[in-house]
């Protein structure tokens, strides 16, 4: 089976539409349509049922999709191993929480770039999403907040963080909690803390970026819970007042995790060396 056709099928299945797949694959929609038609002609079966609501896999398409996941994972693993064997430097696909990416990673990745010329990509998101992506082999490793399931992931200590409650000059902790979407470990810690003081019903306003959250805190639209290092790195940190969260909510550890059955590539090993040096 053509690897390009399988990747196209995966993109349509994940985005739910041919247009969405075209954006994800950085090509025109007619290319997506042509590739899916070729795949259907190869097997003599429809793989997608198209409607105004989008595209969904047919029963046969579900079978192709399940096999495609395995084949694409095997292809990526083989390509990675051969690049390593050839000394070309296999790519390292990293994931990170938004706050860690903004505050901790710039200096760390600069050091990694000095040690390795291998291609590097970075995906940000909440801990739950990142762990799912690592397990599904969409990324190789991720910086996430603990605890970590050691039956599925290897993990090394990367950073220790003190969580603080941050408010602006004209606000109090009585406003809404400004936080990332569900799956964010800092949001979970904040809500656990609020629950411990009888405020589990506190309104939550979801936002997409750390800069946006802290900017809205400064503007008096609510409060947030974040690592102290992230708040101190904010452009107007002097306008915010911070209070450490009490135990056991205030201390958290960021780990670099990867699948237990995955052997780190050279760039990954160099990243581990850098973390060990910092420790």
UniProtKB/TrEMBL annotation:
<dbReference type="InterPro" id="IPR036390">
    <property type="entry name" value="WH_DNA-bd_sf"/>
</dbReference>
<feature type="domain" description="HTH lysR-type">
    <location>
        <begin position="1"/>
        <end position="58"/>
    </location>
</feature>
<keyword id="KW-0805">Transcription regulation</keyword>
<dbReference type="InterPro" id="IPR005119">
    <property type="entry name" value="LysR_subst-bd"/>
</dbReference>
<dbReference type="Pfam" id="PF00126">
    <property type="entry name" value="HTH_1"/>
</dbReference>
<dbReference type="Pfam" id="PF03466">
    <property type="entry name" value="LysR_substrate"/>
</dbReference>
<protein>
    <recommendedName>
        <fullName>HTH lysR-type domain-containing protein</fullName>
    </recommendedName>
</protein>
<dbReference type="InterPro" id="IPR000847">
    <property type="entry name" value="LysR_HTH_N"/>
</dbReference>
<dbReference type="InterPro" id="IPR036388">
    <property type="entry name" value="WH-like_DNA-bd_sf"/>
</dbReference>
<comment type="similarity">
    <text>Belongs to the LysR transcriptional regulatory family.</text>
</comment>
<keyword id="KW-0804">Transcription</keyword>
<keyword id="KW-0238">DNA-binding</keyword>
């Amino acid at each position: 089976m053509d690897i390009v056709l399988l990747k196209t099928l995966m993109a349509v299945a994940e985005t739910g539409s041919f247009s969405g797949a075209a954006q994800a694959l950085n090509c025109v929609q007619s290319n997506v349509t042509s590739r899916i038609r070729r795949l259907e002609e190869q097997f003599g079966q429809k793989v997608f049922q198209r409607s105004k609501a989008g595209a969904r896999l047919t029963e046969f398409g579900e079978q192709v999709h399940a096999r495609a996941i395995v084949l694409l994972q095997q292809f990526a693993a083989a390509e990675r191993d051969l690049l390593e064997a050839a000394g070309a430097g296999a790519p390292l696909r990293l994931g990170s929480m938004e706050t860690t990416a903004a505050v901790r990673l710039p200096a760390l990745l600069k050091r990694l770039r000095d040690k390795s010329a291998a291609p590097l990509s970075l995906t940000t998101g909440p801990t739950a999403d990142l762990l799912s992506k690592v397990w599904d082999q969409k990324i190789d490793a991720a910086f996430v907040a603990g605890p970590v399931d050691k039956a599925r992931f290897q993990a090394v200590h990367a950073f220790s963080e003190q969580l603080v409650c941050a408010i602006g000059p004209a606000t109090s902790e009585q406003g809404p909690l400004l936080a990332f979407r569900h799956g964010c470990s800092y949001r979970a810690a904040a809500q656990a803390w609020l629950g411990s003081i009888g405020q589990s019903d506190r309104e939550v306003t979801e936002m997409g970026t750390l800069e946006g959250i802290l900017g809205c805190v400064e503007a008096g639209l609510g409060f947030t819970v974040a690592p102290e290092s992230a708040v101190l790195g904010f452009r107007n940190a002097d306008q915010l007042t911070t209070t450490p969260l009490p135990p056991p909510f205030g201390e958290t550890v960021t780990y670099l995790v990867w699948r237990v059955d995955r052997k780190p590539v050279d760039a990954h090993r160099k990243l581990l060396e850098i973390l060990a040096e910092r420790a």
